[in-house]
Design goal:
Shape: elongated
Distance between the termini: 58 Å
Number of strands: 9
Radius of gyration: 23 Å
Strand content: 15-25%
Largest sheet: 7 strands, mixed, barrel
Order of helices and strands: HHEEEEEEHEEEHHH
Number of domains: 2
Number of helices: 6
Strand order of the largest sheet: 1-2-8-7-6-5-9
Helix content: 25-40%
Length: 236
C-alpha cells in the first residue's frame, strides 16, 4: 500500500510531466484533499455497482470507549434489565453510500458478540418488546455509536470506511494512556498508508491530476474575465 507522501509525489510528477521543480510543486495539503475526493468517488462508484469494495480501504477503530447514555438521548426506554450505551467520543465521519454509513462490522473487542445495524427510528418502535434485550444491535446518531445491552461493554470495535484516514487514525482509543501534551503524535501524516485498492492507484492519480488541471484552467479563465471587466479595461 502506498503512503500519503508517495501518492502526493506521484501526483506532482504526473502533473509536471516529470520531476517538478520547487516553484511548480503543488502544496501537499491541497493534493491530499484532491486524493480524498477522488478516492471517495471511486469507492462510491464501487458501492453503487456490482464491484466488490476491497478490504484495503477499510479501517478499524479497535477500542471505542463506551459510556451510559443519558436517557434524553435514547431512542426509547430500554427493555427491562438493559441499558443504552454510547461512544464516549464522536466517531470520525464515515463515507456514505445510498444514505447509509459504510460500516462493515461492529463487535465486542473479543469478537464474541457482533452487533447488527439498526436506526434510531427503528429503535423507537421496539420499546417494551420482550425479545429486544436478546437482540444485539447498534445505531449511529450525531456521530455517536449507540448499543443496547444487559451488561455494558467498556469497549467496542468498529470497522468501516472513513472520509479522512488521518482523522480516523487519530481517533482517541480507550487503550490510549497518554494525557495532555503526551498525546501529541510526532509521526508525519505523509508516512501513513493511504487506504486504497492497489489496482485503483493509477486511476486515482489520473483523476486527481485531471481535477487539478481543470481547476487551474478555470482559475486562469476567471482571472482573465475579471481583468476584462475591470473599470480600467472598460474605460479604454
Amino acid at each position: 500500500m502506498r503512503t500519503i507522501g508517495e501518492l502526493i509525489q506521484d501526483v506532482n510528477t504526473a502533473y509536471n510531466k516529470g520531476v517538478g521543480s520547487d516553484d511548480t510543486r503543488l502544496v501537499p495539503r491541497y493534493v491530499y484533499s484532491k486524493l480524498l475526493a477522488a478516492r471517495n468517488r471511486l469507492i462510491n462508484q464501487q458501492g453503487n455497482s456490482t464491484q466488490k469494495i476491497g478490504q484495503a480501504v477499510y479501517q478499524t477503530l479497535p477500542c471505542i470507549e463506551m459510556e451510559t447514555a443519558p436517557i434524553h438521548e435514547c431512542a426509547c426506554l430500554p427493555p427491562k434489565g438493559c441499558t443504552i450505551y454510547r461512544s464516549k467520543y464522536k466517531l470520525p465521519q464515515f463515507l456514505v453510500n445510498i444514505n447509509d454509513e459504510m460500516i462493515q462490522s461492529v463487535s465486542t473487542v473479543t469478537g464474541e458478540i457482533e452487533y447488527h445495524k439498526t436506526t434510531w427510528e427503528e429503535k423507537k418502535h421496539t420499546t417494551g418488546r420482550r425479545y429486544v434485550k436478546k437482540i444485539h444491535d447498534y445505531y449511529i446518531r450525531n456521530y455517536r455509536l449507540y448499543i443496547t445491552a444487559q451488561t455494558g461493554p467498556t469497549t467496542i470495535t468498529l470497522t468501516g470506511i472513513f472520509a479522512d484516514p488521518i482523522i480516523a487514525l487519530s481517533f482517541k482509543s480507550f487503550c490510549d494512556d497518554c494525557v495532555g501534551d503526551d498525546c501529541v503524535d510526532c509521526n508525519s501524516p505523509l508516512d501513513i498508508e493511504f487506504p486504497i485498492d492497489g489496482h485503483k492507484v493509477n486511476t486515482l492519480i489520473e483523476m486527481v491530476v485531471i481535477d487539478i488541471r481543470e481547476n487551474f484552467s478555470r482559475g486562469i479563465e476567471d482571472r482573465t474575465n475579471d481583468s476584462a471587466d475591470s473599470p480600467e479595461q472598460q474605460s479604454k
